[in-house]
Design a protein that fits this description.
CATH superfamily of one domain: Bacterial muramidase
Number of strands: 8
Distance between the termini: 58 Å
Radius of gyration: 22 Å
CATH architecture of one domain: Orthogonal Bundle
Largest sheet: 4 strands, antiparallel
Order of helices and strands: HHHHHHHHHEHHEHHEEEHEEEHH
Strand content: 5-15%
CATH topology of one domain: Helicase, Ruva Protein, domain 3
CATH class of one domain: Mainly Alpha
Number of helices: 16
């Protein structure tokens, strides 16, 4: 049987970082190790050794309890739609024009969306997160806060994928850093998404989402492609609320279009944008400082919510992409 620990990971186990830390005993760690052995044939003893290195972080619990996506749109938007982030996107696109064009063509994804996702996620690599991924995923697996929406099972699954990913890609799992939620690299992939959607576009035999711009750009494009992105199709357009509007049609959680533009117009949500009446669409309301803004969103908007389920995130990506595209045309 293949050993769980690669030479890189075995070295990490005896590193000074490990030697100087106090072994942690997490509630449920033994059951987790048994599942790792049963489901992925990872040696339970070695899994426990790794988990003993995972440190509980109160700051991670605090962060997951107050995500940015809980803000109203008028406070969320200025975080990401800034002159600096727009200029950074234009520079990133121009510096990597050939890579972005190749990935966009191979996967059928609009290039400005690829750039905007990397811009929103990590400011084009400037902010990739300072938490050890092992700490983040263990904290959220074993100590998820009482928020009324227990996601510990999700993070336990991601922790399992992370350990498997370490074996598959030779990643030093006790050293890798990322977001407070355990997302990694310039595209901020969770471990399960890394395993499923990351690609080796530079052909060096590894899927590297930290330092290979070919792999990073290609992986973001592949993620969107696999979730059904339609090149050149609309993402969102402004909507007008008529007096007869049926507010029950405003999407709250699921942004998969279930009506058409024409049907929504008949029920009080019209648009002056040039989109076909048969185009599938949903209605989105965003909280502004002086009232709500209304949008019709399309299949491509829904695809962005597969990257991050928040409609605020998806709208920020879209609006940043449009600003970057305009900057490229100047």
């Amino acid at each position: 049987m293949k050993r769980f620990l690669s030479p890189v990971l075995a070295t990490v186990l005896t590193s000074s970082c490990y030697a100087e830390s106090t072994p942690q005993h997490h509630p449920g760690a033994e059951e987790f190790a048994e599942r790792a052995a049963d489901e992925f044939q990872l040696p339970a003893t070695e899994v426990l050794e790794l988990l003993q290195q995972a440190q509980f972080r109160q700051s991670i619990v605090d962060a997951i309890s107050r995500p940015a996506e809980a803000k109203p749109w008028y406070q969320y938007r200025p975080i990401f739609i800034t002159d600096q982030r727009i200029r950074g996107g234009v520079d990133f696109w121009r510096d990597n024009d050939a890579r972005i064009a190749a990935a966009a063509e191979q996967y059928g994804v609009d290039p400005q969306i690829i750039v905007a996702i990397i811009g929103v996620e990590t400011f084009y690599g400037r902010i990739t997160g300072g938490y050890r991924v092992l700490d983040a995923l263990a904290t959220l697996s074993f100590y998820y806060p009482a928020t009324g929406n227990d996601r510990s099972a999700f993070f336990s699954s991601e922790l399992m994928h992370f350990l498997v990913l370490g074996q598959e890609e030779g990643i030093p799992v006790t050293e890798v850093t990322g977001s407070y939620a355990g997302a990694m690299g310039l595209g901020q992939f969770m471990p399960s998404s890394y395993r499923e959607y990351a690609v080796d576009l530079d052909g060096d035999g590894r899927r590297d989402l930290w330092s290979s711009l070919d792999d990073i750009i290609g992986s973001v494009a592949n993620y969107l492609h696999r979730h059904g992105w339609k090149h050149g199709e609309p993402v969102a357009v402004g909507a007008i609320r008529r007096d007869n509007a049926d507010d029950s049609l405003i999407a709250r959680r699921n942004f998969k279009p279930e009506s058409t533009v024409g049907e929504l117009a008949e029920k009080g949500f019209a648009t002056e944008a040039d989109v076909g009446a048969d185009e599938p669409a949903a209605v989105l309301s965003l909280e502004e400082a002086d009232g709500d803004s209304l949008w019709l969103t399309f299949d491509n908007f829904y695809v962005i919510t597969r990257y991050n389920r928040s409609p605020l995130y998806a709208m920020a990506v879209y609006q940043l992409s449009q600003a970057i595209l305009a900057g490229m045309e100047d």
